[in-house]
Amino acid sequence: MATNSHIIAIPFPLQGHINPMVQLCNRLISKGIRVTLVTTFSISKTLQNRTDENTINIETVPDIDSTVNGGDENLDIYEVFIRNFRASITNGVPDIIRKHSSSGHHVKAVVYDSVIPWCLDIAKGNGLRGAVLFTQPCTVCSIFYHLHEGNLEISSDEVGFEVSLPGMPVMGLKDLPTLVYDMNSYPSLLRLLVEQFSTFENADWRLFNTFDKLEDEILKWMSNKYPIRTIGPTVPSMYADKRLKGNYDYGLSLFKPSTESCFQWLETKEDRSVIYVSFGSLADLTEKQMEELAWGLVETKRNFLWVVRETEQCKIPKDFVSERGLIVNWCTQLEVLSHRSVGCFFTHGGWNSTLEALCLGVALVVMPQWTDQTTNAKLIADVWRNGVRVKCDPNGIVSREEVVACVNEVMEGESGDVIRRNAVKWKEMAVEAVSEGGSSDTNIAEFAEEILRT
Ligand code: UDX
Q1: Among the atoms of ligand 1, which is closest to the Cα of residue 235?
Q2: Residues 193, 277: one domain?
Q3: 183 and 271 housed in the same domain
């Protein structure tokens, strides 16, 4: 039953950041908190298709015009995007707060994505408390924390580079987030991820989309620095365990899913016989990489369901045909991963995809592209062992032979058995964390209780 306690939620307006925020909001609503989510107008139109208006109230700010760089030609696309989003939010949110407070639904707090830390100023400037949500693993956040504190030196020479940080496995250069070592990346994004700690200690709550047993050592280390709360996986547990079926909406699709064709096709496949392939909402592979992946999937001689976003479909080899494969531009990933026919998930290692596969006990082949995906791949292959990481050739291309070898390693033989057993083990621990009385469920209940008491 919704009370008058109300929060404003502000996700970073990209798919992989909106989903965990929407999922967290749904869980807060189930604990009696009213939620208003603030996003841009065009995203709000998509969101309302996916989220029952009776759960999350949507308020909008003007769309981000990425062409307006204020005359500063030196800004990269992300800097312009972030600067314009900040202007929209800073101008629009105070009125939204006043509107709801005057209608008797007292806004108590702002929950904001860690990559937009300036939202805390908006909260405090309106007399509200602030909760920062980290939508990447604590291990990745901690690497950026060390950079923020100035105690992590990065060498550009990969040979022999190793870094040993508290609570983490020893990392080679290519195990760190790409923004840390790839000088061709957008420096503005690295700044964004390092600056996310600027409000860390002044926030009233620090929420992580992970769970205690998944990252136990690094979470203990981070907890010694500041009070933190694990509230993940925010993945709707209804997919992981029917016992917990709730009114969760797992977020939104900024892309229109071609769902009907997926399930008719999946229904015709044997159990655990399908490779599900998806690289999330942002990755853009080169034509050469798409060629190797496409022919590699054919050479596995297995069924595959491959998500290729519309903007990427031009990179599929012109002569590509396969009677075993189905290519779609988007699907409802959680339902696909829940399907009995899916035997492994060939992924880029985005954090939401990683958590979703983990919650559903699906084994992984990880081909990381950028940002946190390289570190997620390290954790999957070497720590959690619920999947394998592909190897690149000297040009950074994953060959069709490597695609076949990794799929076979996960789908068959003793190595596959061990990986699948680990995948089931992590699923059970994820379900335990989000089940009633579990560590994450308890943390969310306590967070909601503190909001109710504010
Ligand atoms: C981005 C970054 O790239 C990622 O590294 C970071 O961890 C989060 O932000 P993205 O690349 O989109 O995310 O990947 P991911 O985190 O996996 O999020 C993709 C979301 O889209 C998932 O929730 C997935 O379920 C959903 N999805 C993907 C669909 O619903 N349908 C699809 O066809 C593909």
Answers
A1: 23
A2: no
A3: no
